[in-house]
UniProtKB/TrEMBL annotation:
InterPro entries: DUF2891 (IPR021365). It comes from Blastomonas aquatica. This is DUF2891 domain-containing protein. The lineage of its organism: Bacteria, Pseudomonadati, Pseudomonadota, Alphaproteobacteria, Sphingomonadales. It comes from the Bacteria.
Length: 362
C-alpha cells in the first residue's frame, strides 16, 4: 500500500456490469450485448475535443462522464439509446437487468452536470452537431415514451442537456443557409428527421415547425437526385434516401408521392429489388470502410419509411420494400462483435431498423 493512501476513502470504479448470454436466435439480445460491452469501455477512443489550455488534457471519462464509451461521444449516445429501446420493445429480455444497471451508472445528475459544463467550454458551441445531438434527442424521446418510473426519472435527469441542445439548435437553424448533403455525420436530412420525431414526441411544436419549415425550404424544389453516384467510399447515410425519408415526415401524403416522383424517378414500378445494390465492405477492420455496412442498414430503414408514407396501391412500394430487404439482409449479417470498428455502433443502426423506430407505430 502506498504511504499516506487511505484505501477506504479512495474513489472506486463501479463494478463491471455482468452481461448475460443471449437467447438463441434473439436478435435484440445480440445488439444489446454489443452496446453493453462498449458504453463504459473508455478505450480505444476518438474524441472531438477543443483544447483551450493544458487543463483540458483529460481522459474521455473526465471530460464527458455520461457518454465516453463506444469509441466516440455520438456512438456512446446511440448505444445508450439502443439499450433504452430494448427495454421498451423487449421487456422480457434477459439483458434488461444489465441494461438497467448500465443506464443507472451513466444517467446521474452529476454526470449530466459535467456534460453541460463541458459544452460551456470555449469553442464547443457546435459540439457533435447535428449527428450526435440528434441522437441525444432521440434518446430523450425514447425515455419520454415510457411510463416506467425509472425511465421517466432518467428522462428528467437528461432534461438540462436536452434543453441546451434544443436551444442551440434553434439558434443554429436560421443561420444554416444550405443543406448539408454528405453521407456521414454532418448530414442535415438525417438529423432533422430524428429531431422532428423527438419534437413530436415531447410536444415541442415550435421546434417541430422550425425544422419542418427548414426542410421544406431546402428540399421542396429538389429533383433528380443522383442516386447512381451513391454510395461514396465512406458513407453510412444515403444523401438521396435520407432526404426522401425526411420529406415524408413534413409533406402531406399526396404531395409527397408527387414530389418523390420528381426527386427519385429511378424507383421502378415492376417490383424489382435490384435497382439499388447494397454497398460492399472489403475490409471490416477499417473504421471508415465499414461505414458501408451502416449505409446498408440506414438505406433499408429509409426505404421502409418512404414506402410507409405512400398511398395504398402505389406501384413503387414493392420495389422499395424489395430493395430494403436486400439491404437489410446484407447489413444485419455484418453486425457482429468480431471487429470493434463496426461493433461499437452498428448495433444501434440495426436496432433502429429491426424495431422500425422511425415509422409511425414503431
Amino acid at each position: 500500500m502506498l504511504a499516506g493512501c487511505d484505501t477506504a476513502d479512495a474513489p472506486r470504479e463501479p463494478a463491471p456490469v455482468a452481461i448475460p448470454e443471449a437467447r438463441p436466435d434473439a436478435v435484440n439480445d445480440r445488439f444489446a450485448r454489443l452496446a453493453l460491452s462498449c458504453v463504459h469501455q473508455e478505450y480505444p477512443n476518438k474524441i472531438s475535443h477543443v483544447m483551450n489550455d493544458a487543463r483540458d488534457a483529460q481522459t474521455p471519462s473526465a471530460l464527458t462522464p455520461a457518454f465516453y464509451g463506444c469509441f466516440d461521444w455520438h456512438s456512446s449516445v446511440h448505444g445508450h439509446w439502443l439499450l433504452a429501446r430494448i427495454l421498451k420493445t423487449d421487456p422480457r429480455s434477459p439483458m434488461n437487468p444489465a441494461i438497467l444497471a448500465a443506464l443507472d451508472r451513466s444517467f446521474t445528475e452529476q454526470n449530466i452536470a459535467a456534460e453541460l459544463a463541458y459544452l460551456d467550454g470555449e469553442g464547443r458551441k457546435g459540439f457533435e452537431r447535428p449527428y450526435g445531438t440528434a441522437w441525444l434527442l432521440q434518446l430523450v424521446a425514447e425515455l419520454d415514451e415510457s411510463d416506467d418510473p425509472k425511465l421517466k426519472a432518467w428522462r428528467e435527469i437528461l432534461r438540462p442537456l436536452e434543453q441546451r441542445i434544443v436551444s442551440e439548435t434553434q439558434e443554429w437553424l436560421p443561420k444554416l443557409a444550405y443543406p448539408i448533403r454528405l453521407g456521414t455525420h454532418n448530414q442535415s436530412a438525417f438529423a432533422f428527421g430524428l429531431m422532428i420525431d423527438y419534437a413530436r414526441q415531447v410536444g415541442n411544436s415550435a421546434f417541430e415547425k422550425q425544422l419542418a419549415d427548414k426542410a421544406l425550404a431546402f428540399h421542396r424544389g429538389d429533383v433528380n437526385c443522383p442516386l447512381a453516384y451513391e454510395p461514396s467510399g465512406e458513407d453510412f447515410l444515403s444523401p438521396c434516401l435520407m432526404e426522401a425519408d425526411l420529406m415524408r415526415r413534413v409533406m402531406p401524403q399526396a404531395e409527397f408521392a408527387t414530389w418523390l416522383g420528381r426527386f427519385l424517378p429511378q424507383i421502378p414500378v415492376d417490383g424489382s429489388g435490384d435497382w439499388l445494390t447494397p454497398g460492399e465492405v472489403r475490409d471490416p477492420t477499417d473504421g471508415k470502410l465499414v461505414h458501408l455496412d451502416g449505409v446498408n442498414l440506414s438505406r433499408a430503414w429509409a426505404m421502409e419509411g418512404i414506402a410507409s408514407a405512400l398511398p395504398a396501391g402505389d406501384t413503387r412500394v414493392p420495389a422499395l420494400l424489395a430493395a430494403s430487404q436486400a439491404h437489410a439482409t446484407s447489413g444485419l449479417a455484418a453486425v457482429s462483435d468480431a471487429n470493434y470498428e463496426g461493433s461499437h455502433w452498428l448495433g444501434s443502426f440495426a436496432t433502429y431498423l429491426t424495431t422500425k423506430r422511425g415509422i409511425a407505430g414503431g
